[in-house]
Amino acid sequence: MNNLGYLVGAAAMLAAGTFAFRLAGPALGSRISVSDRSAQLLENASVVVLAALVLTTSLTEDAGPAGIARPAGVLLAAVLLRFRAPLPLVLVAAAATTAALRLSGVP
After folding, report:
1. Which of 1, 4, 15, 73 has the most crowded Cβ, counting Cβ within 10 A?
2. pLDDT in tens, the chain (107 residues)
């Protein structure tokens, strides 16, 4: 099997797994009871995983650090989101900041 076959197979497996997880909620929701503490831990775990993903993708590039421009754009986006700016404005401002820094020679 070539690389495209592996890629299509991996995408199909991920799609099937995602579908199974989404189906499991309504199907098993009434059969399984989770304590309030466990539910809170699961909610916190999802936030931690998302934060780790954001940090990993914003601070690294290939096998090394991403430089200054990309983290600066992410930081600006976080500040704008903290002050409840509209999402399109946040995305454009973060991209423009990163692009302007890169155009000015900041890595």
Report:
1. 73
2. 568 888 999 999 999 999 998 888 888 877 878 889 988 998 899 899 998 998 888 888 888 888 899 999 999 999 999 999 999 999 999 999 999 999 999 98
